[in-house]
Design goal:
The protein is of the alpha/beta class. It has nine helices and nine strands. Helices cover 41% and strands 23% of the residues.
């Protein structure tokens, strides 16, 4: 009976079965691909950073600030799903040490941090300056001339290494305030004697003040350049891998020219308004 089917019927049967086979194969391939994608989803990674450290980190800045954009760009390019959380600096630091976050940034090197964290290559290099009230006559040629003075420091900001022996010995009093803007006002009103910032932070804080009564000036005393870093707790199970990933990504970011473009964009006046 089969051999007596018209030629058209034979052709229709073969074509329909071929089509069914093809569609079935496609479904299988799509299912396999979907399964592969699900199995290879981007790993998630969480970082902590903080506010009031313009132009480097602040949730009110474009892309969360210069350092935030760099860290997110590097790990995003490496295939991670990145989440950055803005917290009070002390809490973010403590939570990262407890491995509640995979890392935190941007941080300067200190002796105590070196004992607890693995440091990346520098995110950015800064030049610290000593700022005093505009009407102050204070100048210094040596660190000893700061003895007996009050240093104003916003929470989360590091004490520069050169001043740490004096603060430990109690020869320089540290007055802690909530924000950099509070530091500006305390020094301008002569309630504290000086504050240490890099020029980028000083410029941003001065613009935020918008008050001629709150003006500071830098003195000629020179501080060594400092670098900021991504840090990961030493006991984090993937500490070395994360730092190696960041270091490699920073190399590629600089090589491509994107690093310079990111820095220039964040240092432009419009990004700091």
């Amino acid at each position: 009976m089969f051999n007596k089917l018209p030629l058209k019927s034979k052709f229709t049967w073969k074509k329909s079965h071929t089509r069914s086979f093809f569609l079935g194969s496609m479904v299988c391939v799509l299912l396999m691909e979907t399964s592969s994608v699900s199995a290879a989803e981007s790993p998630s990674i969480r970082f902590a950073t903080g506010n009031d450290f313009a132009p480097f980190a602040d949730e009110g800045l474009p892309s969360g600030g210069l350092a935030t954009e760099i860290v997110n760009r590097i790990f995003g390019s490496a295939g991670y799903k990145v989440e950055t959380v803005f917290l009070p600096w002390k809490r973010g630091h403590r939570s990262t040490l407890a491995n509640k976050f995979d890392g935190t940034f941007p941080y300067y090197r200190t002796a105590s941090r070196i004992q607890k964290f693995v440091f990346s290559v520098p995110i950015f290099e800064t030049q610290g300056r000593v700022y005093v009230a505009k009407n102050s006559n204070f100048e210094a040629n040596s660190i000893e001339e700061f003895a007996g003075l009050k240093l104003c420091r916003a929470l989360g900001y590091s004490i520069p290494g050169l001043f740490r022996p004096l603060t430990r010995e109690g020869r320089v009093e540290v007055v802690n305030v909530p924000k950099p803007l509070n530091s500006l006002r305390m020094v301008a009103k002569n309630r504290c004697d000086f504050v240490v910032w890099n020029s980028l932070v000083a410029d941003v804080v001065a613009k935020k003040a918008k008050d001629k009564h709150y003006q500071l000036r830098p003195i000629q005393f020179e501080l060594a350049p400092s670098t900021t870093h991504l840090i990961v707790a030493k006991d984090h199970p993937d500490a070395e891998t994360l730092i190696r990933t960041f270091n490699r990504g920073m190399y590629l970011l600089r090589k491509s020219g994107d690093y310079s473009r990111i820095v220039e964009a964040h240092l432009s006046p419009s990004s700091q308004q």
